[in-house]
Amino acid sequence: MIHTIIFGGTFDPPHLGHLAMARAAINDLGSDELLWMVTPDPPHKTDARKTNFEHRYAMSQLCVTGETGIVVSDFENQRPGPHYTSDTIDLLRTAHPERVFSLLIGGDSLRNLHTWHEPHRILSSIEFLGVFARSDPEQELAVFERNFPDFTPKLAWIIADPIALSSSQIRVAIANGEDLSEFLPSSVWEYIQAHGLYKDDQDVIAAAR
């Protein structure tokens, strides 16, 4: 069986932290491939303002250029929403019966997993739940074990070098005129500059206040 990791997100913008997570997950979980799944409209972020999907997809492709085993996917954008992870996994399993799938998430998502749509269905359908380990993951682990005690054996902690800023912080910094090139692949930074993304975006600045 081919082992594929699903790494979903808005990637607005994709940064070096995302890339470090993807590389570490491939190594730590021993997978054959990682699907960098650009989500068009996450159900839990319906009120959040997002950059056009085509821009986020293009930046993601630039971000992973030259990487072995990482494939940018627009799978969720090819179907109508809401784009629940449980549905995405089932559709992928149906389309690719020769594969087993794991899911990669961040520590904050682990703590909130019980609020996702059909979380037990998600956990039942994956091989591993790869979780990007923070410096102190005990809180996230305790919440998970309380809500999903039968699935603890599926947890796999992923160790990767974090970056100091999140995507939302990067957007705010760019809107404020700061140079964030050190946190992004050069090709992604050049794309942002060429298309004027996040620049002088007062909605982004206001949302951060």
Short description:
With 209 residues, the protein is of the alpha/beta class. It has nine helices and six strands. It has helices at 16-29, 53-63, 85-95, 107-111, 119-125, 138-147, 167-175, 186-195, 202-207, and strands at residues 2-9, 33-38, 70-73, 99-106, 129-132, 155-158.
Keywords, separated by commas or semicolons:
209 residues, alpha/beta, Rossmann fold, 6-stranded parallel β-sheet, 6 strands, 16% strand, globular, disordered C terminus
Q: What is the CATH level 1 assignment? A: Alpha Beta
CATH architecture level-2 label: 3-Layer(aba) Sandwich
Instruction: Quickly count the domains.
Output: 1
Helix content: 25-40%
Q: Roughly how many Å apart are the termini?
A: 48 Å
- Would you identify the regions where 5 or more consecutive residues have pLDDT less than 50? 202-209
Q: What is the CATH superfamily classification?
A: HUPs
Structural class assignment: alpha/beta
- CATH T-level fold name: Rossmann fold
Placed side by side, the strands forming the largest sheet appear as 3-2-1-4-5-6
Question: What's the tally of helices?
Answer: 9
- Supply Rg: 17 Å
* Number of E-state strands: 6
Structure, explained:
- This protein is of the alpha/beta class and 209 residues long.
- The chain has one domain (2-162): 3-Layer(aba) Sandwich (Rossmann fold).
- Helix content is 40%, strand content 16%.
- It is built from 9 helices and 6 strands.
- The protein has helices spanning 16-29, 53-63, 85-95, 107-111, 119-125, 138-147, 167-175, 186-195, 202-207; strands at 2-9, 33-38, 70-73, 99-106, 129-132, 155-158.
- Helix 6 (138-147) links the parallel strand 5 (129-132) and strand 6 (155-158).
